[in-house]
Amino acid sequence: MAANGVATVAETADRDANQGLRARLAEVYGQYARLRSDLDDLQRRLASLRVSCVSDDGLVRATVGPRGQLVDLSLDRGIYREADSDRLARTIVATAREAAARSAAQIEEMVAEYLPAESGTRKFLRDNELRSLLGHHDAG
User: Fold this and answer.
1) Is 139 part of a structural domain of the chain?
2) Do 85 and 122 sit in the same domain of this protein?
3) Range of the domain at 27
4) Mind listing the pLDDT tens digit of every residue in the chain (140 residues)?
5) Cα–Cα distance measured from residue 23 to residue 40, given in angstroms and rounded to the nearest whole number
6) Residue 84 to residue 76: CA distance in whole angstroms
């Protein structure tokens, strides 16, 4: 401060700049805190995700978790009317595979608001190719 007790132009500019930086820092910290809270919520939603699919014939219901793992399987009593175990096995696999694909699609939707469309993580969720996650691309 100048000898006469009046702030100089430079001191006023510095004070204004500091106030601007503090305001920007508070804004960025607020955004970080919201994102952190949102990500905690996303993590809880992902952990509790369950997706079920029913086979076309209605005899098989498969439920998968967030990683596509089979967590429940229900078979209608009608499966016993036909003794084709190979067909039943194919139906179970196809139904579980469809549930896993739907689970992956739901996860991609959940993370879409946090990641750019062409990020390696989102590509990995879509195509399940480790190359996408690592950022490696074949030439050609």
Assistant:
1) no
2) yes
3) 8-48
4) 555 656 677 777 778 778 888 888 888 877 777 777 788 888 888 899 999 999 999 999 999 999 899 999 999 998 888 778 899 999 999 999 999 999 988 988 888 877 777 777 777 777 777 777 676 555 44
5) 26
6) 14
